[in-house]
Design goal:
The chain has helices spanning about 1-60, 65-75, 80-115, 120-130, 130-150, 155-180, 185, 195-235, 245-265, 270-280, 285-330, 330-360, 360-370, 375-385, 390-405, 410-430, 440-465, 470-500, 500-520, 530-535, 535-545. It is mostly helical. It is about 85% helix and about 0% strand. The longest helix has about 60 residues, at about 1-60. Helix 1 (about 1-60) runs antiparallel to helix 5 (about 130-150). It has two domains: about 1-465, no CATH class; about 470-550, no CATH class.
Amino acid sequence: MAKKGKSNFMMQGAILGVSSILVRIIGLIYRVPLNNILGEKGVAYYGVAFDVYSILLLLSSYSLPLAVSKMVSKRVTLKEYRNTRRIFIFALIFALCCGIAAFCITFFGANLFAKILHFPQSAIALRVLSPALIILSMLGVMRGYFQGLGTMIPTAVSNIVEQIVNAIVSIVAASVLFKSVTQAKAAAYPFDNVKEAYGAAGGTLGTVSGAFAALIFMIVLFMMYRKILYRQMAKDTTDYVEPAKDILKVLIVTIIPVILSTTIYNISGLIDSGLFSNIMVSKGISEAEKDVMTGMFTGNYRLIVNVPIALASALASSLIPSVVKSMTMNNKSSVIRKIESSIKVSMIVAMPCAAGIGALSRQIIGFLFPTSVNPDKVSLMLMVGCLSVVLYSLSTITNSILQGIDKMRIPVIHSAIAIVIHVAVLVVMLYILKIDVFSLVICDMLFAFIVCFLNARSLRRYIGYKQEIKKSFLFPAICSVLMGVCSFFISKGIYKLIHSYAVSVLITIIISVLIYGVLLLLFRVVDAEEVYAMPGGAKLYTLAKKLHLM
């Protein structure tokens, strides 16, 4: 039973992980033409608008899937299906109220937010984004409901639908709005670069359209699921019906710590943009140069490093309902096994991604962002900051584990400590050191490292978890470094022969995956059971046996 529970949790994590990676790949694909349309100034306006929007999304609805899945999972484990339905209904009402409030704050406060951050051009994009806050609040509840039932498939498919629509609308709308700006229209605004501002707004229109498409998909799916829900409710023998006030109380008590921790955890991007803009301008850097550097960080660096972190987020989403179920059944050993599995899988994926990004940084930039103003600088940012992939993956997983074992306040405290240290160090670096945007890269890693360190201490204290080092960290790190060295020389050789960044990167990635897989087997990082759990595991195991790798 323990193996079955672990297998199901890992399978659900794999489903959501694959979809998340696919979503990020689609995101990378459409961001290439979008970035080329907007230019690095437009990308900066787009990025700043998203930083503000992301914080309001965190405050209004980002925590809803986690909170709802946790509440639903507990009641499903106890077979309280009527109470599960009541939680869903009242969570939707709560979400709608939060979404409308966030919409009003964003729409009517767009100019104020943009002015504070020293990016007045971002106000247009921020207003366009505001309706998505209502849509995503409803969507978050529906995703959390299905996650609580133990299936990640609805979330996975809706994510893909959302991103496909987002990609198409973003490119078309950005191009149309960018070209629509005439001299007369530009003269009506009290700032420069109006074309780029309109293009950024077009890019954000895709986010709204994608969210709406995903919501329609989830509504249709829920209507199809109602028959099953009614059959379960008919078999429900529970006498106790949770009052609305109790449901809302539990929802709020669950959401508030998650909101605080995720807001503090993610607010660093907004703080970074604001501090960097204001301090750089005060030091005499021109507005144009400041905008370009901000675009490099938000539009190039973050976009690339966030792709592999998607797997950690997916594992975290599948981990919480599973941990809640084990905690409800008072099965501590099951919780420990799930923690070990999630951290190990996360590191096995994150470490080679970090090594690959560092080794192929210049060719990745040449491939994805051929119009970049300073590709060498962006590639150096990736080389310096590639470790953030590992640190953010680990901090994301451990945050979710603490939330799953009902230590909701701990991630809040840890993120608050990290953000204070992060801000203090960033201010000192920006004023004293002459490394401009690299200060953001270094402090970004510092923040995640502090969260990882504090989370590890708390896991040992509250649940007695002692991290296995060799197969979760040491051997994957060695395999990743060896793979990274091979990747560097392979890519150089291919590029000399073909003179194409795209071909060089794609061929090198395929070869590197094979090299890394062989190294994992040679170092015995994964065993037969874990190989079988992978997609096509039986064939992989047979092949490994024939090659004497297992």
